[in-house]
Design a protein that fits this description.
Helix content: 40-55%
Structural class: alpha/beta
Strand content: 5-15%
Number of helices: 15
Shape: elongated
Radius of gyration: 24 Å
Strand order of the largest sheet: 1-2-5-6-7-8
Bound molecules: iron/sulfur cluster
């Protein structure tokens, strides 16, 4: 799985203090290659998005875009305050087909021209399907990645495009699964940041709201649930922080003499010098979780985020065990923690559990 693009940035936002993950995103190496270089063996589990989920998503989008984007226009019309039949559409995925670098460059050029038209007050389409934006990751144009919103929708009153994130997740009783919704919001936030970068030199970035539109599926086949718009200040904060992390890690790699566009082996060789911050989300989100868990063996984080929060940064597991056994406290935190651990242990048969482990 390649960590470039929006997926990599979202992962960095989840764990912004992990330099290794940010370095993998910057270098655009495949996670499984870094795993092989570090572990000396292929990754033993499954990875990647399920083919069936990808197919359903593609079919859902196709349904929205067909027949002159009739369903898309009908879904967004109430939000945009324009009759569906009056919404004009340009489909860049139909104009320039394929996912080659050349095709993406061409879609990016066409998107740039449309944004320049928007800034100049010329007519632009209300709906722009599959535009291509660029997002600079670490303050260097060479680090730019392509970000492809599903659709950009024009707010005519504001003369600004908003990202429209389309997902085939099903909305039931007005609710979509929290994880699905959070992921879609983060993706939309990245698209807003890319738009902001594109619009800043054109002098119209101030028109951008901190909001995006969302189209999810209804429980009835491929029919969309009514579209809605949401403000994304928290996600924008997270993603800006992720961009800061990328810039810091780029500088760190330079200091270590590692090129930002390195390969998996070179990155694995530099890994011991890059900080990793193992946490619960690593298990579901990163192929290196098992390796990082082993490296974090004495840290409370291997017991979960709650344990890590309780013990804090200064108390590792051997120290916690010592406090549990009655070692004198050396500071206020330890003075609170020792009795609390003993109280908790009294609820269990800790004499066998803890002493057995320590033996
Ligand atoms: S598993 Fe390791 S490399 Fe991956 S995010 Fe967690 S700490 Fe970072």
């Amino acid at each position: 799985m390649n960590l470039s693009g929006a997926r990599g940035l979202i992962r960095v936002a989840h764990n912004p203090t992990c330099e290794l993950q940010a370095a993998m995103t910057l270098a655009r190496v495949r996670e499984q290659d870094v795993y092989r270089a570090l572990a000396g063996a292929d990754y033993p589990g499954e990875y990647g998005e399920r083919v069936s989920a990808r197919r359903r998503g593609a079919q859902f989008e196709k349904n929205l875009y067909k027949d002159g984007a009739a369903v898309l226009r009908g879904t967004l019309a109430p939000l945009l305050g324009v009759a569906a039949e009056d919404l004009t559409v340009r489909d860049l995925s139909a104009e320039v087909r394929g996912s080659s670098a050349a095709a993406m460059e061409e879609r990016a050029r066409r998107t740039d021209r449309l944004l320049a038209d928007l800034a100049a007050g010329r007519n632009v389409p209300d709906l722009l399907i599959q535009p291509q934006l660029r997002l600079t990751l670490a303050g260097d144009p060479a680090s730019a990645i392509f970000i492809a919103p599903d659709v950009l929708a024009l707010d005519r009153a504001r003369r600004a495009y908003l990202p429209v994130e389309i997902k085939s997740f099903i909305v039931r009783d007005g609710v979509v699964a929290q994880g699905d919704r959070d992921g879609a919001r983060r993706q939309a936030a990245i698209q807003l940041l890319a738009l902001e970068q594109e619009l800043t030199p054109l002098g119209i970035a101030d028109r951008l709201p901190e909001a995006a539109m969302f189209i999810f599926a209804s429980p009835f086949g491929m029919r969309p649930h009514p579209a809605f718009a949401e403000q994304l200040p928290a996600e924008l904060f997270e993603m800006r922080r992720a961009l800061d992390t990328m810039a810091q890690v780029r500088a760190r790699l330079q200091a270590l003499g590692v090129a930002a566009t390195t390969d998996a082996e070179a990155l694995a060789a530099a890994a011991p010098q890059l900080a990793t911050t193992y946490q619960e989300s690593c298990v579901a989100g990163c192929m290196l979780a098992q390796i990082c868990r082993q490296n974090a063996a004495a840290q409370p984080t291997i017991l979960g985020d709650r344990a890590a929060q309780t013990l804090g940064e200064t108390i590792d597991l051997p120290r916690a065990l010592a406090l549990l056994r009655g070692a004198p406290a050396t500071d206020e935190r330890e003075a609170w923690l020792g009795p609390a651990l003993r109280e908790a242990a009294a609820l269990f048969d800790w004499s066998t559990v803890v002493q057995g482990r320590a033996a």
